[in-house]
Specification:
Blueprint lengths: L15 E5 L4 H11 L3 E8 L5 H14 L5 E5 L2 H5 L29 H16 L3 E3 L15 H14 L7 E3 L7 H11 L21 H13 L10
Parallel strand pairs: 1-2, 1-4, 2-3, 4-5
Helix pairs in contact: 1-6, 6-7
């Protein structure tokens, strides 16, 4: 946590928003959207995922790129201890990509986004931030129940009931209805540094190109007609 990260912003600045930044392309584009209207406070959560180190370095590079000084890196390693996901349990295999799959893939981390948002809400309440941005994409929701619009509507109600009456925090999901290609195009329009992001579930050296996340990313860049700037195996 950076010095002063828990303090309210000085008066006269743009309104403050907490932005969850994983180091992936969806959260990068979300951060760029948020930064147009808000002073962003970047939040990164390490939960024991296979690519923790790479995602953290991407988060720091993105924060540096946007000149964000108010940032927090929090530990949620209890999610790895709980297990139940191929992202956190190395005894489980990360599945080969299957973009037509029905049901929940092994990469689903049980109730992860609720854990992430709980930290974000706590920080936002202390900072006096009125908005929280998260890069959830409903295109992923056939596998991940916590990427659906209904989940965020319900969580916003929980925030209303569980914080001070004057707090008035709203969770925003600006890319939730976009396809991956739409996100790529929006990022290109905003001039985001896609080369600073990481999506691979398996490797933190060279992206495998074979997991669901790599496949979704590659399809998005291909359909957008834009070159993906990160390296892939093979």
């Amino acid at each position: 946590m950076t010095p002063g990260a828990g303090s309210p912003p000085p008066p006269g600045n743009r309104p403050l928003a907490v932005v969850l930044v994983s180091g992936g392309m969806d959260s990068l584009v979300t951060a760029a959207i948020a930064a147009r209207s808000y002073e962003p406070a970047f939040l990164h959560l390490n939960y024991g995922q296979r690519t923790t180190g790479k995602e953290l370095s991407c988060f720091r590079a993105i924060a540096d790129h946007y000149g964000v000084t108010r940032r927090m890196e929090a530990d949620l390693s209890h999610l790895a201890a709980i297990g139940g996901s191929s992202l956190t349990d190395r005894a489980m295999e990360v599945e080969q990509a299957d973009l037509s799959r029905r049901g929940i893939p092994t990469s689903y981390v049980p109730f992860r986004n609720a854990n992430l948002l709980s930290v974000a809400v706590s920080w936002a309440e202390v900072l006096g931030a009125k908005k929280i941005f998260i890069g959830a994409v409903e295109e992923d929701s056939s596998g991940y129940p916590d990427c659906r619009r209904e989940f965020y509507a319900a969580f916003n109600e929980a925030v209303r009931l569980g914080t001070r009456p004057e707090t008035d925090i709203e969770i925003l999901t600006p890319v939730i209805g976009m396809t991956k290609s739409g996100i790529v195009k929006k990022g290109a329009e905003l001039g985001v540094p896609f080369e600073l992001t990481w999506s691979c579930y398996r490797s933190d050296e060279i992206a495998c190109g074979e997991c669901d996340s790599c496949a979704l990313r590659l399809r998005g860049f291909r359909e957008a007609g834009i070159r993906d700037p990160i390296p892939y195996a093979g």
